[in-house]
Design brief:
The complex is a heterodimer of chains A (about 725) and B (about 280). With about 725 residues, chain A is α+β, with helices and mostly antiparallel strands. Chain A contains 19 helices and 13 strands. With about 280 residues, chain B is α/β, with parallel strands linked by helices. The chains are: A alpha+beta (about 725), B alpha/beta (about 280). At the A-B interface, helix 1, strand 2, strand 10 and helix 15 of A face helix 1, strand 4, strand 9, strand 10 and strand 12 of B.
Chain lengths: ~725, ~280
């Protein structure tokens, strides 16, 4: 990895930190020059003063000018000496964009302020932008996930935005949920142009590589150019289409608070172990599957070779909020199961249902003799007591009682004759029939309420089971992630020691080679010294046969048999005794060898040793080297084998784990689908019943109305007053 | 590649500050008008770091829990939470809670340049979570052990996350033995993304020029600073790049060690979301 030394290729100044800006913005009149900002109001956080919205390179503050216009002020926390030039070029490009030629008003006006904010006596640049009233993509999805049509609309508008950029030769550089805002009318706004490419910036490097959860794993700085948004465009488009097709994908693949839509860095880097891809690539919706496969195919491509986003054939029709059609909608509106419960609604006329050729209740038809007689009887009977009293037959005191009795008898006679009229009988029968019909129909309102509750409870149970399975799938994913991390953790622990050993192997090998050379050298010297018998010392002065005999007796036969001399203070006459050191380390006092002779012996040996060293080899023989090298090569091989084995074991563990997780996820999804199918079926039956109940309710209301009408009609047509009139007039 | 794990609300990072609260921290530092107590310097540094971290993780809806943070003090009486106010007694606290619960806001008067060559007096609000405390010995080994237990639990619960960062702020004079082996033990904990990072800020009254992120002990004035230097982790490569972009001389051996200088910039080293390129 590249590391710049000594401050890098260009000197940069340290920019203020986010907290430095927060402190400076506590005094707008001091820290700003721009009049809108200087006298503006900085939005405050609950506790820590001016409210920052921070990214990795800047903090943004909201400032409302005295005129009410709201601005976003971007304050940079990392220096870039190209900042001003880049923004000039970007601004120039944005300024010439014709709104009419864009699919939606996505650009946001920016103004680069070279003297933006004064911090600790230094001016730093800032970017003044109009505040955008819109919602970031993740928040918007969270709010609209159940509205598939709206989500698909945003997917289409996103594709249109990407096409706008392609057409203009512009690239944003960091397309992601935080930079894509959805306005109230559903159109998109694109914000944060720090990493934007415009044709004028051709040949420059990237300032950032974009959000990790949206970028090709192969993206590099040199990809800075018109094609750098393509990978992220495919990812965002696929994500939006996927959740529009099947909103439960959002529940399963998006982490609440996750900084991604439904796919993230690991899914791009290690697609093989990605449960998300496996879910998308095997989805039941064919067009989603195909779009997923198309996008998945881009993972291996170099970032700049990714083709432009194409929506051809990829737009599926979103499944509208499910409202299953009743299995067999009857053509005449009355479901079969109701047959026998209600009379067939032949026509809307009220009385027809009683049938039997009875006259329809339009009153009394023709007077019978009985009617006339009962009328006469009633009239005379009622008047009788008064008449009798008047002529003195009845005593005065009985008149009231007699009158009452007479009235009752007349009334009774009239009642009986009235009711015995066939028209009245028929009407009565009709009423009875209607009452019976109303009674046989269970109250549809109650039944409908029950069905509604059943549907609600079915929906709730279904939703809670779905949520539970979604949670289960999420937990399978997070377990997989944690377990994979644990395997890597254990592998690192195991191999770190081995790798350290491996890295020290070369040094150890050299050390051994050096040691070997020393041994070879010593052997050579010893070998040479052995060729010089001790008799050779006789050439030296002061040394005779006696000394040689004494030396031989002490086991010193050649120059190789001793290594030096050790002198020890003898105590007497302040002289020193000399001990020869034998090659085995033993010290030996030779009779007749004092300090002087010992020194002579030592210098004899030293000069011979020096001679021997001159002829000694300066390096190891090929064979000696090979022996050592082979020994280390073997060690190296063994260590490497151990590492490979550990890595292999870890890989197998990971593969097994992943297979298990994939299987579990698929099983969970299968169960979910089975449950959903069953629920849908139950729901269809209930909805059908609900529709039928609606019809039944209409019939019920109809009957109730009929009954009420019939009652009123009966009373009107066959009541006593009408009967009396009929009896009197025959009409 | 190590030290590249995403820091997000679903994969939060862990920050543990260890703060020396021994009696020796009451010694002065600096000269002339700038004389300050070491403990004051250190508590200011912590309060600044917490503000910096809160601002760095602030979004539209408020401060996000990209980190869980502990401030552990060590001195005569105890090794434990150094928070005052509402967070007193707590170890690892989600960042949003920290941002919303400073013990108090101090009004500090400052003379700042007015941009026209003059100076003007202003008042700024300075959030405080921790007060300077000076008392007794310097149980640095025990403090590292305390961090060890926090880190062990964290690593177990976040096996794939960015490794915990432990920042020790001290005058270096450990009174419970050589802290080296405790430091090695602490740094031996690892997530799949790498080993725990241990950084040190050495606040000293000894002479010597301030040093930031050195790659050797050559410029360090005494045994304490050299000891702390060797205890400090080597900076991961992306942090080295940031240090370089801030004008520091860096190499493969550059360590997370600062002597008598500002360490707030360490917060800038943390990537959240969008990745910077290696060189801007």
């Amino acid at each position: 990895m590249a590391v710049s030394h000594a401050g890098g290729p260009v000197s940069r100044r340290k920019f203020p930190t986010g907290a430095n800006y927060v402190e400076a913005l506590q005094n707008p009149t001091l820290c700003f020059e721009d009049p809108d900002l200087k006298h503006g109001t900085v939005q405050q956080s609950p506790v820590l003063g001016p409210k920052a919205i921070s990214g990795n390179f800047a903090s943004v503050f909201s400032i409302t000018a005295p005129g009410g216009q709201r601005y976003a002020l971007k304050c940079f926390t990392r220096d870039s000496n190209t900042l001003e030039a880049r923004y000039k070029a970007i601004n120039k490009q944005l300024a010439v964009l014709k709104p009419a030629k864009l699919t939606q008003p996505w650009p946001v006006g920016i103004e680069y302020l070279p003297r933006g904010v004064l911090v600790a006596g230094q001016w730093y640049p800032a970017l003044k932008m109009a505040w955008v009233e819109a919602t970031n993509l993740i928040t918007w999805i969270d709010r609209n996930i159940r509205d598939s049509v709206a989500v698909l609309g945003v997917a289409e508008r996103f594709a249109a935005l990407a096409a706008d950029l392609e057409k203009l030769g512009i690239a944003h550089g960091d397309l992601q949920h935080g930079n894509l805002l959805v306005a109230a009318d559903g159109t998109l706004r694109l914000v944060d142009y720090d990493g934007m490419y415009v044709p004028e910036l051709k040949g420059q490097g990237a300032t950032e590589n974009g959000h990790r959860n949206y970028q090709s794993p192969h993206r590099v700085s040199s990809d800075f150019g018109p094609t750098m948004d393509r990978f992220s465009s495919w990812i965002i488009y696929l994500s939006l289409v996927a959740i529009a097709t099947d909103p439960s994908i959002w529940d399963q693949l998006h982490d609440d608070q996750g900084e991604f839509l439904i796919l993230k860095e690991d899914d791009f880097k290690e697609p093989k172990s990605s449960l998300s891809w496996s879910l998308l690539l095997t989805h039941s919706d064919a067009s989603l599957r195909s779009l997923a496969a198309q996008t998945h195919g881009l993972l291996a491509d170099a970032a700049h070779t990714v083709p432009a986003l194409s929506t051809r054939g990829a737009i599926p029709t979103p499944i509208p909020t499910q409202r299953p059609v009743p299995a067999s909608a009857p053509a005449n509106g009355t479901p079969a199961w109701l047959a026998g419960h209600i009379p067939p609604p032949q026509n809307t006329s009220v009385g027809s249902s009683t049938g039997a050729g009875a006259p329809t209740g339009t009153g009394f038809a023709r007077r019978r003799t009985a009617d006339v007689l009962s009328g006469v009887f009633a009239l005379t009977g009622s008047a009788a007591p008064a008449a009798l009293t008047a002529i003195g037959v009845l005593p005065n005191g009985y008149m009231a009682v007699a009158q009452l009795g007479a009235l009752l008898v007349s009334g009774g006679t009239l009642h009986v004759t009235r009711r015995s009229r066939p028209e009245a009988k028929a009407s009565k029968a009709r009423l009875r029939a209607l009452r019976q019909q109303v009674a046989t129909l269970e109250d549809p309102a109650v039944a409908a309420q029950k069905v509604r509750q059943e549907i609600e409870s079915l929906t709730l149970t279904g939703a809670s089971r779905d949520a539970q399975i979604n949670r289960q799938i999420k937990s399978i994913q997070s377990e997989l992630r944690d377990e994979q991390a644990r395997i890597a953790q254990a592998l690192n622990k195991e191999t770190n020691g081995l790798k350290t050993k491996l890295s020290k192997l070369a040094a150890r090998e050299q050390k051994q080679l050096d040691a070997m050379l020393v041994t070879v050298l010593r052997a050579h010297v010893q070998n040479r010294l052995r060729r010089h018998p001790i008799q050779g010392v006789k050439k030296l002065s002061n040394m005779g046969d006696g000394t040689v005999t004494a030396l031989t007796a002490a086991g010193i036969h050649t120059a190789a048999d001793f290594t030096g001399v050790r002198y020890v203070q003898s105590g007497r006459y302040s002289s020193r005794d000399a001990y020869l050191i034998r090659s085995n380390g033993q010290q030996v006092k030779i009779p007749g060898v004092g300090e002087v002779r010992a020194a002579a012996l030592e210098s004899w040996r030293t000069s011979l040793e020096q001679q021997a060293r001159k002829s000694a080899p300066t390096s190891l023989s090929a064979q000696e080297r090979t022996t050592i090298r082979q020994q280390f090569a073997k060690q190296k091989k063994q260590l490497e084998a151990e590492i490979t084995q550990a890595e292999g074991t870890a890989r197998r563990k990971r593969d097994q784990l992943q297979q298990r997780s994939t299987a579990r996820q698929q099983q969970a999804n299968k169960e979910k689908q089975q449950h959903q199918t069953a629920t849908q079926h139950q729901r269809a039956v209930l909805l059908q019943r609900q529709a039928q109940l609606a019809d039944q309710s209409t019939t019920h209301n109809l009957l109730v109305t009929q009954l009420a009408t019939a009652r009123t009609g009966h009373r009107r047509e066959f009541g006593l007053r009408r009967y009396l009139g009929f009896v009197a007039t025959g009409r | 590649m190590p030290y590249t794990a995403e820091i997000s609300r679903t994969n939060p990072g862990c920050f543990i500050f260890l703060v020396d609260q021994s009696a020796s921290m009451s010694d002065p530092i600096g000269s002339g008008e700038m004389v300050q107590q070491r403990a004051q310097v250190v508590s200011d540094a912590i309060n600044r770091l917490l503000t910096e971290l809160s601002v760095k993780c602030a979004k539209e809806e408020g401060v996000r829990d990209y980190f869980h943070v502990a401030v552990i003090g060590y001195g005569h009486t105890q090794v434990g939470s150094a928070f005052t106010g509402g967070l007193a007694g707590r170890d690892l606290v989600p960042l949003s809670e920290i941002a919303n619960n400073p013990a108090r806001l101090e009004s500090r008067t400052k003379k700042v340049p007015d941009g026209a060559g003059g100076l003007v007096e202003t008042t700024v609000q300075f959030p405080v979570w921790m007060d300077p405390v000076t008392n007794g010995g310097t149980p640095m080994t025990r403090a590292l052990g305390y961090a060890d237990s926090l880190v062990a639990r964290w690593v177990d619960e976040h096996p794939g996350g960015f490794p915990p960062i432990v920042l020790n702020l001290t005058d270096g004079e450990s009174t419970d033995g050589d802290p080296t082996s405790a430091a090695i033990g602490l740094a031996s904990h690892a997530t799949a993304d790498g080993a725990v990072l241990l950084f040190n800020l050495h606040v000293s009254g000894a002479s010597g020029t301030p040093v930031t992120f050195p790659d050797g002990e050559g410029d360090l004035p005494d045994t304490y600073s050299r000891l702390l230097f060797h205890m400090s982790s080597v900076l991961p490569s992306h942090m080295r790049s940031y240090a370089a972009s801030q004008g520091h001389r860096v190499s493969d051996a550059t360590r997370g060690f600062v002597y008598n200088a500002d360490i707030t910039s360490i917060i800038e080293f943390l990537d959240i979301g969008t990745r910077a390129t290696e060189l801007r």
